[in-house]
Write a structure and sequence with these properties.
- By secondary structure, the chain is an alpha/beta fold.
- It has one domain (13-292): Arginase, Chain A (3-Layer(aba) Sandwich), CATH 3.40.800.
- Helix content is 31%, strand content 14%.
- It has helices at 48-56, 85-101, 115-125, 156-161, 177-186, 193-196, 240-251, 271-292, and strands at residues 28-32, 73-75, 105-109, 132-136, 167-170, 189-191, 213-219, 255-262.
- It has an eight-stranded parallel sheet with strand order 2-1-3-8-7-4-5-6, sandwiched between helices.
- Strand 1 (28-32), helix 1 (48-56) and strand 2 form a beta-alpha-beta unit.
- Helix 1 (48-56) crosses helix 8 and helix 2 packs across helix 3.
- The chain starts with 27 loop residues before the first strand and ends with a helix.
Length: 293
């Protein structure tokens, strides 16, 4: 994939805070997180938050069913993601904890999939108890280390279950024997793509013992490559409407505390993918609005 050309920074999602008041009054709090770990150093993944913010300027405020922007959208300054991964995760966690304590909804724009750990750690640090993570992804990301690196994106969900956070995986179609074993040992629940996609499953039921508060993490390659390009394009992924319908079914069973969108890599000359990413996030805001507000 060719590298995107540099462009002026877009500082806000959909034009920023769309209701009167202070930025902190906005319910939806967008966090640009341009973190990229060693595996993706050669990619333009760090430009994804800015590309999505640019594309969001073209969205309609009416999402087809409601206007989630009326509850306010505030976009934070891009987080400093330089330095050791553990330190970056601490910075992300501090931002998310502050947002949650104000009763707001954090949305992380990655960046590397490792940001999910920082987002989840923020909820833990904010004192949230008994919540789970719903992961939409092609990979299980349950390795204990990746060539000796325990903070690789391939290990992010292992770091999360190590925090005793329940995990429910959707759409996985690539995992190692180590990760399959980790699922069993850690009680990870899952519906893999080979079950969801051929049956065109539109709604899922959370496991009976799963918490009624959830964080939703969406890796771009959870979608089929026909929807989004990705660094590790694996056929047989979830469809656009399928993902949205599944997320809506989750919102009807659990209180969604926040979400993130990771591992998107902008493609020069193909801005429609940026627009699709922005639209996805706005559609999720609408789902959350109708379920919570």
């Amino acid at each position: 994939m060719a590298s995107p050309k540099p462009k002026a920074a877009a500082s806000t999602f959909l034009g920023g805070v769309l209701k009167p008041g202070k930025p902190g009054d906005a319910f939806f709090q967008v966090l640009p997180l341009p973190f990229v770990g060693e595996r993706y150093k050669a990619t333009d993944m760090a430009t994804a938050p800015d590309a999505i913010l640019h594309a969001s300027q073209m969205l309609e405020t009416w999402d087809g069913r409601s206007n989630p922007s009326r509850h306010g959208i505030h976009t934070h300054a891009a987080l400093d993601c330089k330095g050791a991964t553990e330190k970056v995760m601490q910075r992300i966690a501090a931002e998310v904890a502050a947002i949650h304590k104000q009763g707001k909804f954090p949305i992380g724009l990655g960046g590397d999939g490792m940001i999910t750990y920082g987002m989840v750690k923020g909820l833990i640090d904010a004192g949230v108890e008994n919540f789970g993570v719903v992961q939409i992804d092609a990979q299980a990301d349950l390795k204990d280390s990746d060539d000796g690196d325990s903070w690789s994106q391939s290990c992010v969900m292992k770091r999360i279950v190590d925090e005793d956070i329940p995990l429910f995986q959707l759409g996985v179609r690539s995992l190692s024997k180590e990760e399959s074993d980790a699922r069993r040992v850690n009680g990870v629940k899952f519906y893999d793509a080979d079950w969801l996609v051929p049956r065109n499953v539109q709604k899922i039921e959370l496991p009976g013992e799963f918490p009624d508060k959830v964080f939703i993490s969406i890796d771009v390659d959870g979608f089929d490559p026909s929807v989004f390009p990705s660094q590790r394009a694996i056929p047989g992924g979830l469809g656009w409407w399928q993902v949205l319908s599944i997320i809506e079914s989750i919102s009807q069973q659990a209180d969604v505390l926040g979400c993130d969108f990771t591992e998107y890599n902008p493609v020069v000359g193909q801005p429609w993918h940026d627009h699709a990413a922005a639209l996805l996030l706005y559609k999720i805001m609408g789902i959350v609005e109708r379920a919570r507000l």
